[in-house]
Amino acid sequence: MNMRDYEPYYTEDGSIGLYSYADKDVYHSKFGALTEAWEKFVIPSGISSLIDNKQNIKVLDVCYGIGYNTKALMSFIINKNLKQIKNKNLIEKIRYFVSIHTNNFFKKKESELLVYNESIDTNNSLFENLKIDCLDINKELMKLSPFFKTIKTPGEVYDSFVPQIFTCFDSYYKLRKIYENIASIFYPRNKKTIKEKLDIKFKNMHIDKEYKVNGLVNYILINSLSKNFKKNYIDNELKKILKERQISNFLDKSTIRYARFNQFWEYNLSSGNILSTFLHNIYYRYLSSRYKNINFKKAEHLFDVNFYPNDARKTIKKLKETYDCIFLDAFTYTLAPQLWSVEFVNELYEHLNDNGVILTYSNSAQIRNTFLENNLFVGKIYNKKLGKFVGTIASKNKSKIKYPLTNYELGLCNTTAGIPYHDPNLSFSKKEILEFREYEFRHSNLMSSSKYIKIRSMRESNDEI
Ligand SMILES: C[S@@+](CC[C@H](N)C(=O)[O-])C[C@H]1O[C@@H](n2cnc3c(N)ncnc32)[C@H](O)[C@@H]1O
Questions:
Q1: Whose CA is nearest to atom 22 of ligand 1?
Q2: Residue 92 — pLDDT band, cuts 50, 70, 90?
Q3: Which of 8, 156, 199, 306 could form a disulfide with 250 if both were Cys (CB 3.0 to 4.6 A apart)?
Q4: How far apart, in whole angstroms, are the C-alpha atoms of residue 284 and residue 289?
């Protein structure tokens, strides 16, 4: 029996994916959880041109999970807006150093430490702030999300260290072989498992450099989660999970220490006495080296991240915002139909700006038709690298659709394959939604998709003749 109903594993780009036992589905593409976030959500969202033209951008992440889509988006914004202050900007570094040390004597709160409110380097973009509202029914995963390791793939580790150390081994395969042989001397009976594990560890997992999550993102998310859940963020239940071996191997211990210390400081210590001033100074020293630096402060102010741990069908009715971009990353529609109904997409429509876009990984005729039924313009997400379509984009504005559905695809939406789910009050169970569609399917006068495909291919071959 598994302790949790999800299990982490490494996906092929080296980022961590989850498998859900309850939903019998993967949370992320096994080809690469993080790559998928970039290629199906962040890049096609048009964020790059949005930040040049808008001050405040609002994004709704439906099915936040462990937050890859949000993390990739934040990473994009940070990298684009924040010029790293390295050795070349010595004066700024000195000013910052002095400001931190003089302020540590007088100020107690982190927010007060922002002594000079310098504007960020914006590369001529208008952008000032990104609000992300994150919806997921699984509060546990939400809270865990910033602790999952930000990838360092075995391929990268190998590329950076091994060639220098083991130059005598002229290939990586030799090194792997040696590991394997040594391991099988000590654990002869486990030879097969060792081989399998090494296969995973030494698989040349690679991810594009620009797809990496900026190191600041998880720390910013911890601060946002702390604000959201307050002293209940790291509660006893979360502490238990953080220690479970099945999960803890996939977690980054330094982020956990940061979160625990943060919460301890914020909620367990009262300010105003010598002890708390003393501890406060330790707190800054503890965090200063990497994350309490100027880049962290600047980056954090770019974001307003909010968490809604509930059924997205309930949350959506309460949200007042309209969004520039909505990520719809629910489980496969046949397994978890709740967030794919005409009525739920109608809620998304109501929360979408006139120039906004909804993005999903699904290519199915049924989901496309669900968007069409809501009077959205519908198109495909094209991945240049793979040379294929990898998802669906919908908008109220036709010009946002670069690759509209073809006549063939529109025709397919109009067959039984396109019959959408219904969930009239957004309260049906999964079973009820599936049965409702099954009923409609059986009583439908529409052409079956197999017949449609057959007729179309016959017509095409006749045209060729
Ligand atoms: C495919 S995963 C999302 C992966 C996620 N985008 C990530 O980067 O990790 C689907 C998510 O939908 C959530 N979910 C399932 N039913 C839901 C519901 N009714 N409302 C909100 N979230 C739901 C699950 O908890 C799961 O995290």
A1: 136
A2: low
A3: 8
A4: 9
CA distance 171 to 167: 8
β partners of residue 394? 358, 378
Give the residue whose CA is nearest to atom 5 of ligand 1.
Answer: 65
Measured distance CA(438)–CA(26) in Å, rounded? 25
The CA-atom distances, in angstroms, between 156 and each of 153, 356, 435, 459 are 5, 37, 48, 51
Q: Residue 101's Cα: distance from chain center in Å?
A: 36
| Residues forming beta bridges with residue 392, ordered by sequence position | 360, 380
pLDDT of residue 189: 56
C-alpha 146/C-alpha 55 separation (Å) is 26
Rounded distance between C-alpha atoms, residue 262 and residue 218, angstroms: 13
Q: Find out whether the beta carbon of 379 lies less than 6 Å from any atom of ligand 1.
A: no
Element (H, E) at 304: strand 303-309
Q: Kindly give the distance from the C-alpha atom of residue 144 to the centroid of ligand 1, in angstroms, as a whole number.
A: 14
- What proportion of the chain, given as a percentage, has pLDDT over 90? 54
CB of 66 shorter than 6 A to ligand 1: yes
Q: How far does the centroid of ligand 1 lie from the alpha carbon of residue 443, in Å?
A: 32
Q: Are strands 377-383 and 388-395 parallel, antiparallel or unpaired?
A: antiparallel
Q: Which atom of ligand 1 is nearest to the CA of 339?
A: 19
For ligand 1, say whether the CB of 329 is within 6 Å of any of its atoms: yes
Give the phi and the psi of residue 283 in degrees, each rounded to 5: -55, -45
| 63 Cβ below 6 A of ligand 1 | yes
Residue whose Cα lies nearest atom 26 of ligand 1: it is: 65
Helix (H/G/I), strand (E/B), else coil: 324: strand
**Cα of 142 to ligand 1 centre, how many Å?**
10
Neighbours of 432 (CB within 10 A): 15
| pLDDT tens per residue across span 375-387 | 999 999 999 888 9
Answer yes or no: are the C-beta atoms of 329 and 17 closer than 8 Å.
Answer: no
Mutate to test the pocket of ligand 1, among 20, 63, 250, 343 (most ligand atoms within 8 A of CB): 63
